[in-house]
Amino acid sequence: MIVSIKSFFRKPFWSDWRTITFIYMLMPIIISIQKWGKHCNTYQIYKSVYYNCIDQLSLFDFYPYLEGDCNHYGPIFAYVIAPFALLQDSWGLLFWEIFLVATFFVSVLYMPMLRWQKVFMFWFCAHEVMTPLFVEQYDLAIAATFLLIFACVEKQKPVWAAFFIVLTIFIKLYGVMGFAFFFFIKDKKKFIWSCVLWSIVFFIAPMFISSADYIIQQYFGWYDSLVLKNNTNMFDSSNNTSLLGMIRKISHCSTYSDLWFIIPGCLIFLTPFRRIDQFKNPGFRYAMLTSVTLFICLFSTETESYGYISAMTGFVVWYVTAPWKRSRWDLYLLVYAFIFTSLCTSDVLFPRWIYVDWIRPYALKALPSAIIWFYLMWEMNIKDYSTKNIGNTDK
Fold it and tell me: Contact at 8 Å (CB) between 226 and 220?
């Protein structure tokens, strides 16, 4: 049976770029058609960033037309959403969804991985790619951005690596994790100056469609909105789907500070950096990418279910780029992570009551990521990543 399954998935159909491209083109189109003419609240929130910036209205207020929600992205996001906000809503949404998928698709293609590794990532992540598409979430582009950051670092393009890091910081702060790859950059001076220059550009850019005083005021408002969101996320069943949220919701305790877990998490995250001799090994650098993609999901109270596309890419990188043969138990762990991170949100492929009654209320979607991350930390502190050379070109 196993031999038959392997034989089936080895057919050229599954590894043909035309098949994969067609599937990824079809996903945003079908999902957008289902929403045609409907009010899509997340898209309206994104769209409001552009128009509120133009009209110099608060970017972070709870407006009635946003149905009890508000924006939490920085002012530079006005430029990201502008081309779509200028279109009629249904068409704008269609091209927005296509843009999100295209960003992810291109980022995987640009990764310095072997062909079969990219094919595996496309299929492994396909279901989870649809999760943020159903709610128009920018998280898909966030996941793509971290792949692009890593690819730029590996290909020694410090200016572009700095561009994507700083852009993500000015949109959603997560980009700060991109600095984890700093030690893998050869031209560090060029990278630092690029970060400074891009920061100036992204700070000033929104002022050209509004005003300097207004934008500076919005940055203070952004901070206030994130503090408020952090407090409201504490026991929210649809938010805080992180390791922090899982502990909080299982314990039902609100008296402690998340710093009791964030600080130890940061210290654990930093432990592999002491192994300077491993920096030259591609496998170790790929492992750092996995660590980053999992960390941003596990240690942020803003993590939503839709954000786990980042973790899914991390699972693939963790499994396929190790310079040793993964064990059967590693494969079981990957399958477990796939089922309880991606399939658990599907009404068709997973018992709905398990997700509604157990996984969502207790943020158990974070559990597979937590297990793999702690396991990865053990590997990065113990394992020798120089066992063999990881291919960095397409074959």
Answer: no
Residue 257's contacts (CB-CB under 8 Å, 6 or more residues apart) are none
Residues of 91-114 as b/e, b for ≥16 C-beta within 10 angstroms?
ebbbebbbbbbbbbbebbbbbbbb
User: Does pTM surpass 0.90?
Assistant: yes
In one letter, which amino acid is 238? S
Q: What is the DSSP string of 269-317?
A: HHGGGG-GGGTT-HHHHHHHHHHHHHHHHHS-TT--GGGGHHHHHHHHH
Report yes or no: 270 and 378 within 8 Å, Cβ to Cβ. no
**What distance in Å separates the CA atoms of residue 173 and residue 167, rounded to the nearest whole number?**
9
Query: Closest by alpha carbon to 205, among 79, 379, 30, 68?
Result: 79
DSSP state of 355: I
The structure tokens listed for 274 are: 């002491």
Give yes or no for a contact between 290 and 314, defined as CB atoms under 8 angstroms apart.
yes
Q: What is the pLDDT of residues 29-41, one digit of tens each?
A: 999 999 998 989 9
